[in-house]
Design brief:
The complex is a heterodimer of chains A (120) and B (257).
Chain A: H1 2-42, H2 46-59, H3 64-76, H4 80-93, H5 98-119
Helix pairs in contact in A: 1-2, 1-3, 2-3, 3-4, 4-5
Chain B: H1 2-19, E1 22-31, E2 42-52, H2 58-74, E3 77-78, H3 86-89, H4 121-124, H5 131-140, E4 145-169, E5 175-199, E6 205-210, E7 213-218, H6 225-241, E8 247-256
Parallel strand pairs in B: 2-3, 2-4
Antiparallel strand pairs in B: 1-8, 4-5, 5-6, 5-7
The chains are: A mainly alpha (120), B alpha/beta (257).
Chain lengths: 120, 257
């Protein structure tokens, strides 16, 4: 009986370790996508940047920076609803990040203006 | 000693890595126009009901200004036709509780329009609802998008406390700037334009927007009414232009790694 317990425990541990490794690998790949996206955005290639950050959030849906950047890309494209959702997700994942908060505040100003315009 | 050095280098490394985790980038956010002007190939800035002071011919000046702005920034073809004498066309029918036509409204000089008093404007503004009239105007110019409305430009006076910044020097000759509240008589103008966008094919109003801008100067300062008019119009032109063409708002955001 103790042998079975040991076996189960080691199996659980194995699964946990492999999951952690997989997560780490996903985060690493997501970080690469985010970096590439930043270079693209700085070169003015916003479509490429959007594609990279979309890949990054697929790879790692817990990566706040990727959601923040994706929100900026949507904002630049005038896709306000998508930008809003991505900013919300970024703030949810990293609520204390002042950069994300600052971006959201600036986005809100523009979004409110666009909404006023559409409401008329 | 070694510990302190290690801590210091760790702090430097952390600060350096921290610096690399965010990048400020410029962005340009597009905002869609308020109305879809794509069915129209041309725009006719027809004329405006002038109201308030007669120091500025707000009908003529507004037409000129909007035509030149739309030509330069709106990317639209502008119909350069005569300005409509809207006051004459909108004159309410006597006996219907409407005010009598203003003195000189039926004058023969078409270049000078007489400004209406603020209270007299509403009955004249009914012309914007007259679909048949605008349809006819539209037919004459090949069914363009018609821009019309009213422009009320009135002198204004206000007295009260204003906060100004004043230079002061302490006993050591050091300069500092402190806010000082002073009572002042001020005068200026209020500009209240109402822009009406009409479909030249049907005569229907597509969109209406009213603005209010105010400027006040020191009572001793003498600023020509025309300068004030342009200064106030300048403030609301971006909003006017955004009715027809998309706007780009420049700003910056922080990308994170």
């Amino acid at each position: 009986m103790p042998a079975l317990k040991k076996l189960i425990a080691s199996a659980v541990l194995g699964v946990a370790i492999s999951a952690t490794f997989a997560q780490a690998a996903d985060r690493k790949a997501a970080v690469e996508q985010v970096s590439f996206g930043i270079d693209a955005a700085r070169a003015g290639l916003w479509r490429e940047a959007t594609y990279r950050w979309e890949r990054a959030v697929e790879l790692d849906p817990t990566y706040a920076a990727a959601f923040n950047n994706l929100a900026i890309a949507y904002e630049q494209a005038g896709q306000f609803e998508k930008a809003k959702q991505a900013y919300q997700k970024a703030a949810e994942l990293d609520p204390k990040n002042t950069y994300i908060k600052q971006n959201i505040d600036l986005f809100k100003e523009i979004n409110d203006r666009a909404n006023r315009q559409n409401a008329r | 000693m070694r510990t302190a050095r290690t801590l210091a280098s760790a702090a430097v490394a952390l600060a350096a890595s921290g610096c690399l985790t965010f990048i400020e980038v410029p962005i340009e956010t597009p905002i869609r126009p308020k109305i879809d002007a794509s069915p129209f190939s041309r725009v006719y800035v027809a004329g405006f009901l002038p109201g308030g002071t007669e120091d500025v011919d707000t009908n003529l000046e507004t037409v000129r200004l909007l035509r030149s702005q739309l030509k330069n920034k709106g990317g639209m073809r502008i119909i350069e036709a005569d300005v409509l004498p809207l006051t004459e066309a909108a004159k309410p029918v006597p006996g219907e509780g409407s005010p009598a036509a203003p003195p000189g409204a039926s004058q023969s000089d078409p270049d000078k329009t007489v400004a209406l008093a603020e209270a007299d404007l509403p009955p004249y503004e009914k012309i914007f609802e007259n679909k048949e009239y605008w349809k006819k105007v539209g037919e004459e110019f090949g069914s363009p998008l018609i821009i019309t409305g009213s422009v009320l430009f009135t002198p204004h006076q206000r007295s009260g406390y204003v906060q100004k910044e004043q230079e002061v020097y302490d006993s050591f000759g050091r300069r500092s700037v402190v806010p000082v509240r002073t009572y002042m008589d001020r005068k200026g103008f209020i500009l209240r334009p109402k822009f009406v966008f009409i479909d030249g094919r049907t005569g229907e109003t597509l969109y209406t927007e009213t603005f209010r801008e105010e400027i006040l100067y020191n009572a001793e300062q003498s600023t020509p009414a025309l300068s004030s008019y342009f200064e106030l119009m300048d403030r609301l032109l971006p909003s006017f232009l955004s009715t027809l063409s998309s706007q780009t708002i420049r700003g910056s955001r922080v990308l994170l790694k």
